[in-house]
Amino acid sequence: MRSPKENFKISVISFIGSIVQKILLFTWKYKHHNFKPEITPAIYAIWHGWQFNLGGIIPRKKLNILISQSNDGEIIARVVESLGFSTIRGSQGRGGMKATREILKALKDGKNIAYTVDGPKGPGFEVKEGIIRIAQMSGKPIIPVFGDANFRFEVDSWDKYQISLPFAHIPLRFGDPIYVPKGEEFVEEYRLQLENELLKFKNESRKKKAKLK
Fold it and tell me: In the CATH hierarchy, which top-level class contains the domain 4-212?
């Protein structure tokens, strides 16, 4: 239960954050690579620190973003809902079962899911099993997503959170869909496959930027 002071703080930060985010979205230029919106419903997999770039996934009204039930999560949820996204609240620590049921229902109803694979608390750049099990239960594909703005600020945090700056160009790369077969023996195999795919995008982007310097 949040105190009145916490609720006030969350409301103020969310309001300011919504305005800032809308201004930033207006200035950003996304370029999609291998984006196949016809593959729907799908589970879009992204690193926690790169979730700032989810604004490039369209249509927003069909995208449900999984967000933790923490105070920080409440702020993020209010901001992304103001931008036209839907949210599902929960994480492995709090509300996990409820969130899983809502995710499965959303996928069954034809809506897409955005899932931060190493959140909400890390360790960073290690895919957790949750997304693999959801893919197994739903039968829907996982699509790796990676966006790396040319102008950005990196927060000194466990996830190396990326904030794209005004007028940034953001190449948004989408991997091929990953269909996970049912069976406990496939969980680790496909967890590693997804992790390697996302790490490959990250490493290729860093190498490309290094060559330009």
Answer: alpha beta
- pLDDT given for residue 53 in this prediction: 87
pLDDT at 52: 86
Note whether 43 and 143 are within 8 A (CB). Answer: yes
pTM: predicted TM-score of the whole model, two decimal places:
0.91
Domain parsing of the chain, residue ranges: 4-212
**Alpha carbons within 13 A on the beta-carbon side of 157:** 15
Average pLDDT of the chain?
Answer: 92
